[in-house]
Amino acid sequence: MTSNAASMELHVHPGETDLLIPLPGLQDLWDPHLIHTHYFGFSIPEAAIGGFVYIRYQPAFPLSQGGVCIFQGNDNVEFTDMAYLDYEITMPWPRIENNTITTDNGLRIEFVEPGVSARLTYTAPDGRLRMDLKADAVTPLLARGHVMPGEEEHHDLARKPGGSEQFMQVKGNLTLDGQAYDVDCFAPRDRSWRQVRVERRGAVASPPVGWSPMYFGPDLIFNQISFEPLDTNPRWAGLYDVGDRPSHHFAWVQRGDETRSITSVNRDVLEYHPRLHMATCQEITARDDRGEVYRFRGEAIACASIPSWPNASFRDSVYRWEDGEGRVSHCTYQEIWFDIYQRAMAERAAGPRV
């Protein structure tokens, strides 16, 4: 177990933060790397399908990027390997009317009740994909800070950066290339606002971090983001100096109506994808602030490269998790890293030079 526990007090954001998407005033100069985001995910485990729905706002310009990514199976190495991809890097600022956000490529997010309920709709111009999903909260709208360790050093605290995470029950329908699917899953959503996510090379030095939300029932909803501890013999060993900081920097567990902090996380990766390099089989042991210990084992049934952060390697996946009692959860597992790790893994996969 990681001995240095991350200090964390859990807070809840008001629902109106869902629509906190500010633009600079006429006399304001905002960092070009300051962003807001909205993320929603979903899965169809029986078809090994994962969905990544994302908007990234760049208010200094103002521009946006985002769209819908649908991936199936474990062989989505290139972005265009995905079953369906409509993700634009450069779009105008979305149209925001009342509680509804609509992007230039047709993704529509309606916050039916901010902080509680949202509807996601999208229809492909060529008819290949139709999506109509309703996401209803099953946990509080928990406050979350930065994503990457070290990223917080670049934030402008005067602008009050923030973020949130929440588990949703996602129901609806998806039609892909004429095949209709029912969607009924539990999946997280998250967002950031006024965070400075620097894209300059070398600005953030961190091993790969993995986000592993899980929903087993109202009595056990788990979430953590961490890098692999050095004592698990991770592939990043020798590439980074993490000092004595804990491997996790944000984690919580929901036990019915009670939200508890996680004080220690040990994430041990057992298998990696041969080309995507992400974890495809891993075990997690965690302890909460009441001393209760949790053990999970998971395996990827679908995974893909995702285009949202061009200066980093970003992977999304659908994981099949089991808890210590044998209960099963299907949920996203996401991992991100920068060029030092990617080059090292590519060289390792290539083998010794002759």
Automatic annotation (TrEMBL):
Boundaries of every DUF7064 domain copy: 209-307
InterPro entries recorded: DUF7064
Alphabetized Pfam families for the sequence: DUF7064
SUPFAM superfamilies: AttH-like
Protein name in the entry: DUF7064 domain-containing protein
Organism of this sequence: Mycolicibacterium fluoranthenivorans
